[in-house]
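As agreed, record minuted below.
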Amino acid sequence: MTDVRVVALCGSLGEDSVTRIALERVLEAADRAGAETELIDLRTWELPTFDPDRDRETAGDAEQLAVRLQRADTIVLGSPMYHGSYSSPLKTALDYCGFEEFEETTVGLLAVSGGAFPVTALEHMRSVCRALNAWVIPHEAAIPDSHSALEDGEFVDSKLDERVRTLGRRTVQYATIEPDPDSFESDQNVGAEGK
């Protein structure tokens, strides 16, 4: 595929983030599949807590973030699992976005956990994407036991490594898929559009 742009949004602020390393692997696979890629590392972005009374243009880097996501054919959301959900930096970033950034856009999901599989974090991200009329790739990457998942920056388990890289290939494969009609939730969600 050509002219496909894949943007990964890293919801981890940790210095040695497994989420960030995994997203880099996703983007490497997408690059090999012919896509232009970008990693948005939220550690380097100024995004104040979302305030609906504040215009996005005056909220730090929120407008620039929205522009970058609008240009993407596929967005990959990556987050560590905190208290059974995804991270607050990712939540803040998503709160500054709306239908313009996500509607009919392909989305890939990746979640990392220090313990068992981060299923609920993936479910919560999928629910947000459904409300924004995004099309979420059925293949998702879940990384459990993150403290032992990597050795010298590489995945210890080759099957897990392949699962993460498969997500990268799918981001390109499904970048231009025709999504189904709007979900019921999308009609009820006014979100942060225009804020």
